[in-house]
Amino acid sequence: MRTIWVFGDQLNRDIGALATADPRHDRVLLVESTAKLTSKRWHVQRAHLVMASMRRFAAELEQAGFEVDHRRSDSLETGHRDHIAQFRPDEVVATEPASWDGHRLLERCGVEVTRSNQFLCHYDEFAEWADGRRTLKMEDFYRWQRTRLGYLMEPDGITPVTGHWNYDHENREPPPRGETPWTSPPVSRLDTLDRQVLADLAELGDSSWGAPPDGTWATSRRAALARLRHFVEHSLPIFGPHEDAMTERSWHLAHSVLSPYLNIGLLLPGEVCDAVQDAYEAGNVPIASAEGFIRQVIGWREYVWGVYWRWMPEYRSANELQATRPLLPVFTGSGTEMRCVSACLDGVHDRAYNHHIQRLMVLGNLALLTGVDPWEMTEWMWSSFIDGAEWVMLPNVIGMSLHADGGRMATKPYAAGGNYIDTMSDHCRDCRFDRKQRTGDDACPFTTLYWDFLARHHDRFVKNPRMARQVRAAERLGDLEAVRERAAEVLERLDRGDL
Ligand SMILES: Cc1cc2nc3c(=O)[nH]c(=O)nc-3n(C[C@H](O)[C@H](O)[C@H](O)COP(=O)(O)OP(=O)(O)OC[C@H]3O[C@@H](n4cnc5c(N)ncnc54)[C@H](O)[C@@H]3O)c2cc1C
Ligand code: SF4
User: Fold this and answer.
1) For a substitution probing ligand 2, which of 336, 339, 499 has the most ligand atoms within 8 Å of its CB?
2) pTM for the model
3) Which one of 67, 82, 114 terminates a domain?
């Protein structure tokens, strides 16, 4: 018998080695590693998602006739070793793992690796696209992906439907006033398996945090497919316009909230994009929404996957802005009067989820402006979000959010003051701070820190054509000295967890 070793983020019969598996010749190994479960202070909903999904997947495989060795071990390595000792397989194979360390682990264990089809662009195909290019622009990659994959293309294969590639300009509306148009995703009922997972997690000690699972997150393929159908029917038609908006009246807006399932294999990117394309072709979805969503999946998601493999392992330690501040206490529960930050952190606590603009323009922006150490921020987000994984965290946190890679991924830092947050959200209205003030006790910390950031990094960004105007504006501020004094006070209070 051959053993197929399946990792906790490969939970799909159609992925890699499992796609051709046959219960008559193949057995499946799944390892729950105590070392992994205790390696970070995981949000309990994240730990539950992975463990419950693994257990349900193991049961599905058994129902399909496979012998499954689903074991708890001190580490993945010992799980593999103990499996060999007990079952003596002729061979152990695994699908290419999604992390740099996973590859090293399989090499050490002498496991045969088969090619992964979990992404639409394998990293060697990405390398072919990237080789010889001076800069790796997401927009170029996205158009290349659209053309090769054929999503939203005219029959000639080279022209985008409607003649346009990009609808970003239509997709930047602030939150609507009045009634919210978004329907909530389905909720699953917790069962005995969920309760057992939570009991097992509790036995590991008290390291996890956050609100316990409430059924927001699906832990089986069947339930994940139901979430996909719900999204396509109810949210996709209005996905575009408020893609960048934030509101205290909805935690999800029209976002798909499908990332956790895509990242652990319960859904595959191709089937998600096919469903979106079908809905567009049936006339149920405007092009700006269909294109906006497909861009996220075949563009951004596959792009960060590609750059992760291209730039690892050095990428992990990138810190071009020399940011060395320890993680701010606000991220670990000190509480804050900054209404936007507090709303995002409530979302992380309650569901282990924030949508993109909250991650980038509130939490990431705060870490960027205050100079939090990139690896500390990565670790915090990785352990806090329902969809965290190293391949997706590093480019998004180190590259896009903290500009720690010096602009390899994003040509300018996503730094913003209170004005931006006010335009795109309803947080500022009832905040104790005033987003227009940059000095004084009521000054919005984002506004103060934004100008301080531009002044602090003057020499670097004044040469950047996309930043020079703002840097020059900071230079000309009549009260720059007072702004910098207030910034020092804000930073000191944030360090104490007292703002
Ligand atoms: C600082 C920061 C940290 C992030 N951390 C993660 C993470 O740990 N895991 C994760 O999957 N995404 C991460 N993202 C990307 C993005 O914010 C999430 O994928 C998205 O918010 C998930 O919610 P959704 O499924 O409702 O997304 P939607 O808005 O519905 O988008 C559809 C899908 O597009 C994909 N997508 C969109 N943007 C990105 C992107 N930049 N990178 C990768 N995939 C993308 C996701 O799979 C997502 O499900 C991060 C972004 C930032 C700025
Ligand atoms: S005023 Fe500043 S701190 Fe308050 S919600 Fe607006 S941006 Fe956030």
Assistant:
1) 339
2) 0.97
3) 114
